[in-house]
Task: structure prediction
Amino acid sequence: MGCSMDSLKFVSSWKSPITEAQLQVKVGGLQLEGCSFDGARLSENRHDSPSVSAVPDCYMAWIAQCSSGSYSPEEVISLPVYTALERVSVVTHVTLP
Result:
């Protein structure tokens, strides 16, 4: 992108490709433990829910700090992405609405 990493921020979008991104990746196969996510809303598990559930594919990209991104900071929660279920190594953090 021809700029320093300090001028960028990492964003994710669960609804559509990130329009502000020059380059992005579509990530699939992520799993969520302890709650459910349908691509629009994070919700608590019920007593009969599986402890681990698959989440929809999402788009991830680095964009300029001054860009708005897909969500406002007030409407998201940041969750870690680990390399494995054992939660030893964090890869990054993604935001979920």
